[in-house]
Amino acid sequence: MLILHQNISMIPRNLIINAALKAGFDIVGVTPAVHIEDENFHFSKWLSAGCNATLSYLERNQEKRFDASKLVDGARSVVVCGVAYLSKFSRGYPTGCNTKIASYALAKDYHVVIKEMLSEVADELKAYAPNLRFRLFTDSAPLAEKSYARRAGLGWIGRNSLLVTPDYGSMLLLGEIVMDEAVDEYDTPMQSVGCGECRRCVDACPNGAIRDDRTIDARRCISCQTIEPMAGKECIPLDGWIFGCDSCQAVCPYNKKAPLCKNSRLNPLFDPLEFDAERWLSMSEEEFTEFASETPMTRAGLARIKENIIS
Ligand code: SF4
Ligand code: SF4
Fold this sequence. Notes:
- The chain is of the alpha+beta class.
- The protein folds into two domains: 2-87 and 107-187, NADH Oxidase; 200-256 and 268-310, no CATH class.
- The protein has twelve helices and ten strands.
- The protein has helices spanning 13-23, 37-48, 62-65, 110-128, 145-151, 200-204, 222-225, 247-250, 253-256, 277-281, 285-292, 302-310, and strands at residues 2-4, 27-32, 77-84, 100-101, 134-137, 156-157, 163-164, 172-179, 185-187, 241-243.
- A hairpin with a 5-residue loop joins strand 6 (156-157) and strand 7 (163-164).
- The longest helix has 19 residues, at 110-128.
- The radius of gyration is 20 Å and the shape is globular.
- The mean pLDDT is 94.
- One iron/sulfur cluster binds at residues 160, 204-205, 207, 209-210, 216, 221-223, 245, 247-248.
- One iron/sulfur cluster (SF4) is lined by residues 160, 204-205, 207, 209-210, 216, 221-223, 245, 247-248.
């Protein structure tokens, strides 16, 4: 369902959608830049329970995270764009593999790719509205992107806490444009949550990290524990993952039927099955840089990856 506004000075939603699709995004929605109070409340409770583990940056800027109007002066709208990254490595590794890598991390760092794509969208919006003021977000600044994505009608929050979309599942990278112009038609949230009785992600999580309220306990989450700083790291089984974890997404029926990524900017840059534990442990920094320097794996670094293998 769309909310319509009759004002020719507003940016047309169609212009935004077309610009996003042209830039290579698969889905896009637009929602007003309002404060999402109820989700802010639940997030505060999650923090109070210590579920953010060592991710202390999540405790900062709470007043902005759920209120996009505090991120850009006079913000009126949030454009939420998503691009699917599902590859042949996204739906699981061979049994016994002990060097598993989350599939998003095999491609060029999404912070770079999404920023480039959002810039292309913003260029088109600036051409239409030269005085437009905006900021681009790619998981690098405080913005509750899944919450705004849900409000923009892209999907629902799955039991595994991720945004799940009917056509592309959850293996999507999100980017947002917060801007000071209104839009002539806003999207509205989906009326239903598509998980139904399914609990496959909950059952697939090796460490029981998925909580009943559709949040994750980062202290028990491999994705967090293989990447974030070692200080305060919990000693949990890593189930063969050496960077990130896709277990709760690989089993999701929406990811099983989702199409493979068709955006060449997100193609895997190497084949993780060519690297067994022995190969990783004997790898030099030079070799790591040679094939992984553009990937998000540099965030953890080779030493940490080796540590994950032997822990
Ligand atoms: S990413 Fe892995 S460890 Fe974290 S909740 Fe999902 S299945 Fe569990
Ligand atoms: S696996 Fe099932 S419960 Fe989990 S997010 Fe997917 S549909 Fe929802």
